[in-house]
Amino acid sequence: MSDHSTDFYQSLEPFSAFSEVLDVRHYKPLPEDWLVAVTDVVDSTGAIRSGRYKAVNMAGASVIAAARNALQGVAFPFVFGGDGASFAVAGEFRAPVEQALAACRTWVREEIGLELRASLVPVGDILAAGHPVSVARHTPAPDVSYAMFSGGGLAWAEQQMKAGRFVVGEAPAGSRPDLQGLSCRWQPIRATRGIIVSLLVLPADTDTERFDAFVADLLAELNDSPGGGHPVPEEGPPFAFRSPGLELEVKASAAPTGRKRLRRWLMFLSAFAWFLGKTGLRFKEFDAAHYRQKTAANTDFRKFDDGLKLTVDCTPEMAARLEDMLGSARAEGVCRFGVHRQDEALMTCIVPSPYQDDHMHFVDGASGGYAQAAVMLKKQMAEGASVL
To answer: Which end of the chain, N or C, is less packed with Cβ atoms under 10 Å?
Structure first.
């Protein structure tokens, strides 16, 4: 085992200010002996049209939970994309990661009724195709970190997945990944400033200097708005008396024979957390107010993986201003983008323990979010390709 390769991600010096997300000093190339995993839900837009927003997000986040549990505490870079997720691991972990991905594919099809694609791409192949892949570690709060990817390698790996290459097949029928910690008990979070905006921004060409300058301007505009556009109130989201994602969590956490008992237990936990939140009481080491505040601080609402992804709460005027900036940048050949507006945000979580502060929360728009923004983005990309 190569300690350098295995410890690569953990050894990265983290940065806390998201305004530094394009600072090349924070990024290091992935080791050539690593693997990049890419996944997505097939026809996620169709599922979203059917109202299955939560199921799509749960399928996407399941990949991260399964990989975390398969690696048993080894730190690795990952990014949640709404209808899928991507991550990278040392090559020596191929077997457990491939098994986890295969089991996720089977579980998503059998239990959620969606199709999950997955590919495992060697970094060496990505580099041989001429696409660098570098990673940085962003810490929005002291106890969590989220990976940022740059260089174009991740986008190339996703293209290979959609072309049917480097495929991870499904596990045998009835296989289940270890999804311990995967949770979705929060109510949808309503916009407090007017609109929840899901935003995807990609460079239009190889002129990264112009793109980087534009992204810096866009982030500066958002930073001047209340809360920097954070979609979760500073005090945290309200507890749900009855979790709207309860059935999905039941399917993630138990075999069919044990679901009735688990369903009752999760209903009790949701109601009890709601009660503690309303009364301000504590139970043993669990402080509901503290947990809610940490949820807000730990939320992953800004990310960069070969492009900017944001889920922000802003006024209609700010949303219009952002769209004007994006439209002008597109006309100048700086970027391509996708935007989707909605009234609420959705949260999907990985909570190793409610008594610790390292719980992670992935946020997306509640009526399609990133997947709907991607429809607009793909249209722009197709239009650009037709011109060339």
So the answer is: C
The per-residue pLDDT for range 188-199, each reduced to its tens digit, is 999 999 999 999
CA proximity to 346, closest of 63, 128, 56: 56
Residues spanned by the domain of 182: 8-235+293-387
Number of domains in the chain: 1
What strands, in cross-sheet order, belong to the sheet with 308-314?
A: 302-304, 308-314, 195-203, 335-342
pTM, two decimals, is 0.92
Q: Which residue has the tokens 């983290």?
A: 14
**Domain presence at residue 338:** yes
Residues 277/289, Cβ–Cβ less than 8 Å = yes
Q: Report yes or no on 37 lying in a domain.
A: yes
Phi (first) and psi of residue 98, to 5 degrees: -65, -40
> Rounded mean pLDDT of the chain?
92
Residue with tokens 């999804």: 179
Residue 329 located in a structural domain: yes
